[in-house]
Amino acid sequence: MNKTIGIASLVGIVLVLAFAASLTSINNQATAQETTPFPSREKVISVTGIATISVDADQLVIQFGVETQEKTASAALKSNSELMNAVVDSIKGVGITEDELSTSRLNIMPIYEYYTKAEGKRTQELVGYRVSNILMVETKSLDKAADIIDGAVAAGVNRVESVYFTLSPQRLLDVKDNLLEEAILNAKAKAENALAPLNHKIIGVKAISLSEFGMPPPVQFRASFDMAMAESAVMRAPTPVFSSDQDVTTSAHVIFLIGSN
After folding, report:
1. Is-contact 214 179, C-beta < 8 A?
2. Are residues 72 and 12 in the same domain?
3. What is the pTM of this model?
């Protein structure tokens, strides 16, 4: 009899413990649900501000070179070097320093002639080598553009790759700093104008995303000269080359926190 009562008591204890564990699990779930954050109810407005400025170019970039062709690579390179040395001397003669000169590209290419044999087969024959040496001038002496081009052509340049005005790296950095502030202020003004009729105001900033600065591709002058034109360069009037303003643009995407007035 006592043994039966003892078993019944043990069963009762197990049931009580199981019930207690169930209550604890329910309470934990309730607590977890209570501490789970509600979805954000913040009010925001997303605006993109734009800033553009037109600034004077402060750097002149000219790429031109000498192209020669001979029967052997060494002969083509030698004649090219002689002409290029004369070109460099001419450029230095108008006040350009070695620091403002650099080799942009040097190519040595074999030249083939294609013909058809009596049997009808096409074949090729090596007839020489072409050497092309392109020089780059980067200077802040904008007023020397015509003198540089005319002197170089007279000295032997037979390829003018490009001539353009742009902004120097330091000048571009200075412009960028000013444009960032203007773009953000533009975004703020747009947001305030949009919120005014809604009786809301800006109370903070949630995020800012800045875009890359954009400059239009420089307008380039391209030309090629044969030797007859180069020889007559000294007889022509100075080449007219004019600088132009550079438009720089940036944008800032801003998400503002807003609230009622």
Report:
1. no
2. no
3. 0.62
